[in-house]
Amino acid sequence: MSWYRQHPRVLPWKSTKDPYIIWLSEIILQQTRVAQGTPYFLAFTKAFPSVHDLANAPQDEVMRLWEGLGYYSRARNLHTAAKYISRELDGVFPDTYQTILKLKGVGPYTAAAIASFAYDLPHAVVDGNVYRVLSRYFGIETPIDTSTGKKTFAELADQILDREDPASYNQAIMNFGSMQCVPKNPDCGKCPLQSACRAFEMQKVTQLPIKSKKIKRKDRYFYFLLCFNEAGEIAINRRGAGDIWQGLYQFPLFELEQAMNLEDIVETLKLPKELEVLSISKTYKQILTHQTIYARFIEVEQKQKSPEILSSDAVWKLPSALVDIAFPKVVNRFIEDRFDAAGYSPGLF
Ligand code: SF4
Asked: Is pLDDT above 50 for 244?
C-alpha cells in the first residue's frame, strides 16, 4: 500500500465509484493491455454513457465498436448483461459479490474487482499479476492453472486482504505486479518486498509462478472468397455460433485441412464455372489463444447470378460500405491492403 501511494497510476476509470463504468473497464481490459484497451473504454463510455444506452444499442453497433479487441464473446456478454440490468433491474447495478457474479461474462475476478472498487466490499481480486506476486513472495510452487492452485491462491489472497480498504489494496497488488514484480526480469534490487521475498531468497524468481499446461495451438487454413457481382458489390455473410468470431462478418469462407496452391484450391473447392478466379492474396496470419489462422483471399467474379457456392445468407455490399461493418482482424488487414480510402481500387494484387 505504501509502494502504491508512491506509484499511483492515473487511468480514466480509476476516479469513479460508478459500477457501470467500472464494469465496462473490467470487461474491456480482460486479456487486454491497458494501452490497447483505453481507446475502447473511451469509445464505449462516449457512445453509451449509461447502461440503458448500451442495452438499447443494436448488436452490430456494439460489435463494431469492439472490433479489433478480440475475444468477441466478451462484447456479446456485455450487451446481454446490459439488457438484463436495464430491463430486469430497472438500470440498478447489482451491489453484492454474488449478484454481480450472476451477470453474463462476469467471473470471480471481475466480480471481486467491481465489488471492491465500486462498493468497498472485502473481496480479493486474483488476476495474473496477483498470482505472480503471491507465488513469488510466498514461494508457492503449486501450478496456478489447476483447481488446487486456484483454491490455494484465492484463500491466501483473501487472508491478506486489507478489509479496511479493499479497493486500494486490490489496486495496489495488481499495480505492483504490472509495474514492479513483472513477468520477465523484475528489478528485485529496487523492490521494497525483497528482504522477505521467498522467490528472491531461493533464486526462483524466473521460475514462478508455475503453470502445468502449455497452450497447444491448432493451425487452421481459411480461404475467403472475394466475390464481386456485376454491380461491383461484394458478398459477405455473418458468422454463426459454435466457432470463433461469432456475430462478425466475413467473406464467404472455406476451410481446408492444409495450405494449398491456387490450382489445388480450385479443384478441392469445386468452384462452379459461373465464378471466374482472378487472383489470390498473400497469406495473412492471426494468432488466437488456441489456434493460428492462416487466411488467404481468392478474388472471383460472378458471371451469372447466385451460384450455389454462396450461401443463402450472403448479402451484397459496395466496397465503400465495408468500413462500417465489423470484421475479424485478419479480414480487416486484407481489406486495408486491398481497398483504398475511397473504397475500391481494382487490380491491386
Ligand atoms: S523481490 Fe523480485 S520477485 Fe520478489 S516481490 Fe520483489 S520484484 Fe517480485
From this structure: yes
